[in-house]
Amino acid sequence: MSGKRVLTEPEIETVFRRLSEAMPGRTVTAKGPKDQPDPFRSVVSCILSAQSRDANTRKAVDQLFALGRTPDQILALPEDEIAAAIKPCGLYNMKTKSLKKLCAVLIEEHDRKVPQTREGLMDLPGVGRKCADIVMSFTFDADVIAVDTHVHRVCNRIGLTDAKTADQTARQIEENAPEWAMRDGHFWLIQFGKAVCVSRKPKCGTCPVNDLCLFYSATAAA
Ligand code: SF4
């Protein structure tokens, strides 16, 4: 085992360069799973996506937006109607309350507009770092590496970060990634996590960064 917990700056640069050569970037996968052109729909989608599969989240969002498309319209809906519409995404009673709070705050404090900064987004009820970064990246086209479960796993296996939680990974990757990788980094990492560095049985033998990966060197030495 190397004993290092995080790769050096040049090593991190090399990892991103190789990932950029092996994986599609933002332009190819512009329509990510949570991509929503309307900022309000994007935030709602993110809140509903907690512990839900993408297909179930999409169904819940579609059913909800068939009932109302604005904060005022959704706030006016009875809770049981919202809960029934979003049932496919699970945790629907809790998420119904979050949606109601979100709509009220947008109306009362933000003139019905979704804030366009990470900090502003994270001040909204039910919106954490991951959700804020996904909205920033997908909806506001910001150069942000949003960290979901795949990105979190890959970053910490390779040694791009040394973090326990996805939020810590997000903070560390923002510091550790080269500037040029911020725009497409999320897309390279997520595709890589789905195709190569999968949760169970990662394909280390044919992985383009296995000579640098701390997880691989630790398992090879074990
Ligand atoms: S060597 Fe294995 S663990 Fe490391 S990045 Fe590649 S697939 Fe993932």
Automatic annotation (TrEMBL):
Pfam families: EndIII_4Fe-2S, HHH, HhH-GPD. InterPro entries: DNA_glycosylase (IPR011257), Endonuclease3_FeS-loop_motif (IPR003651), Endouclease-III_FeS-bd_BS (IPR004035), HhH-GPD_domain (IPR003265), HhH_base_excis_C (IPR023170), HhH_motif (IPR000445). Keywords: 4Fe-4S, DNA damage, DNA repair, Endonuclease, Glycosidase, Hydrolase, Iron, Iron-sulfur, Metal-binding, Nuclease. The keyword Phosphoprotein does not apply. The keyword Ligase does not apply. One of its GO terms (molecular function) is metal ion binding. It comes from the Bacteria. One of its GO terms (biological process) is base-excision repair, AP site formation. Its cofactor is [4Fe-4S] cluster. Residues 48-195 form the HhH-GPD domain. Belongs to the Nth/MutY family. This is Endonuclease III.
